[in-house]
Structures are given as structure tokens and as C-alpha cells.
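Review form for a predicted model. The reviewer records the input and the model, then writes brief findings.
Reviewer: anonymous (R2)
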Amino acid sequence: MKILLIGATGMIGSRVAAEARARGHEVTGVTRSGRDGTARAEARDADAVAKLAGGHDAVVLAVAPPRDGSETVEPLLADGRGVLAGARRAGVRRVVIVGGAGSLEVAPGTRLVDTPDFPDLYRNEALAQGALLDAVRAEAGDLDWTYISPAAEIGPGERTGEFRLGGDRLLADAEGNSRISAEDYAVALVDELENPQAVGRRITVAY
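Model under review:
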């Protein structure tokens, strides 16, 4: 499989690239800087995305909004819409998005980001990721998209290959912890690329 990976050097993107390549897939990495052997392009530049996506089987978007206190929603929406438009122009139907956990429900109608103890540091990012999910649901019906939310906590760790998959509800263990390693998140994402089970919907992955 030929995969265009936008955000290939980030914490999650780099692990998706490594996992996909370890399974024999061809990964074209894309970053804003063009460093570390990646192609240089902005996700919001649909023409650039289309040019790079030509001949690929799937496009993966693994970018996050800025954490510098600036506006977060519109930049991420612009990136998401640029990737969707670029994939369409290139004739690539399969799009997988690295999403956020804040839009997952902890109770019917209550998202994690809306709970009182949600960290302020991540609130704007979570709202932006939720807005992107809403936009994809509303605007990407012509594409074979999947939005994958991690657990509430994700970071570098061990690749175990053992995890649970869910839908729109936050997954937690018996002690109430919701976590996943970035390595196992990457396993779940590449699994979905290889064997699509969640086309046109959001899933989540956690221990």
C-alpha cells in the first residue's frame, strides 16, 4: 500500500510511519518544513496535497492545532478541508485522520472536553479536533474516511499489539484510567488501513 502521511515527524505520525513501513508499506512523509526526508507542503494547500497524493492508496492526516495560545479551530479545519479536497482531486478515496479524545463521550451527550476537570492546556486543541470531526462527518460523505481518537492519555511507550477498540464513548480500564501508547495507536491505525472496519465513522483505541 502507498500511504501519504501528512505530519510524518510528529509524536504519533512518526510512529505511524514506522509501523506502516515495518509491514512493508510505502510511506511518503509530508511536513511543513520538508525536513528529515519528507516532502514539504501545508495540509491546507489542497493543490499541493493533490499533487503529492497522486498514485497513493490512502492519505493519513496526523497534524495538531497550535498550542501557542492562538486560534486553534480555524487552522485545524483549514488543514482538514485541504486534505479532503486534495484527496478528492487526486482520486484517493481513503482518508484516515488522527483525531483527539476530547470529543469522546463520558456520558450520553457529555463530551470529555466538557467535564470540569478537563485540563485547560488541552481544551482549545480538543475543541478544534471536535470541530474537525463534525466537519468531516458533514462534508466527507463522498470519501472513505475514518477518524481515530486515542484514549484520554497518549504518549511514547511500548508496542504491545493488545488494545480495545470502541466508538464514540471514552474507553477506560477497571481503575478508570484511559490510556494508550503512541506505538499501539499506530498499530490500530495501520490495522484500519489494511483491513477497513470503520469507514465513515469515528473509532477510539485504548487499553
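Findings: The mean pLDDT is 96.
Further findings: The first strand starts at residue 2 and ends at 6.
Recommendation: see findings above.
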